[in-house]
Design goal:
This protein has 126 residues and is mostly helical. It contains six helices and no strands.
Length: 126
């Protein structure tokens, strides 16, 4: 083993491990965000068909860690749950809830794009 290998290889390997774990974390985030986008999309139809069930499904979605980790998405979903005067929008105005859920779906798509951009910059494909 020469001097270069002794002094620089130990420094390079930990950096590669960090990059690999970051890559896996971002890829998992993208997968989870895609499943969240699908869940929000399906919830829009479910809220119209079953208003009381839609309210419970929306509450369950608000308890998800992924949703809580994205403040913009969380606040928008929370606004779909209760409106002004603490009315339950899912029960009172299902079409309004559906439009809010469409906006949430767009917000989640933006989050996916951010994660993909971060992954590309990590891999050096900018």
């Amino acid at each position: 083993m020469n001097w270069l290998q002794q002094n620089f290889l130990p420094q390079i390997k930990p950096l590669q491990r960090v990059a690999m774990s970051d890559r896996l974390r971002i890829e998992r985030n993208i997968e989870r965000l895609n499943s969240l986008r699908t869940a929000v999309h399906n919830l829009g139809f479910f809220a119209i068909a079953s208003q009381s069930g839609g309210y419970q499904a929306l509450q369950d979605l608000l308890d998800d860690r992924l949703v809580k980790g994205r403040p913009v998405v969380f606040e928008k979903l929370k606004s779909a749950l209760t409106g002004e005067n603490n009315q339950k929008l899912v029960l009172d105005a299902p079409t309004r809830v559906q439009s809010i859920l469409n906006e949430v779906e767009e917000l989640v798509q933006r989050e996916i794009i951010k994660e993909e951009r971060e992954l590309r910059s990590l891999l050096g494909d900018v």
